[in-house]
Amino acid sequence: MSKKAELFQEYLTSHNLTMFTRQDLNDQLKTSVFRSAFSVAGDTIPFIIVVDESAFCMLQVQIAGGVVNDGNRARIYEEVNKWNITLKPFKYVIDTDGSLILTCCMMNADGQMDGDKTNAMMNIILDYLTKEYRNILAVVKG
Question: Least packed by Cβ within 10 Å: which of 20, 102, 115, 117?
Answer without folding.
Answer: 117
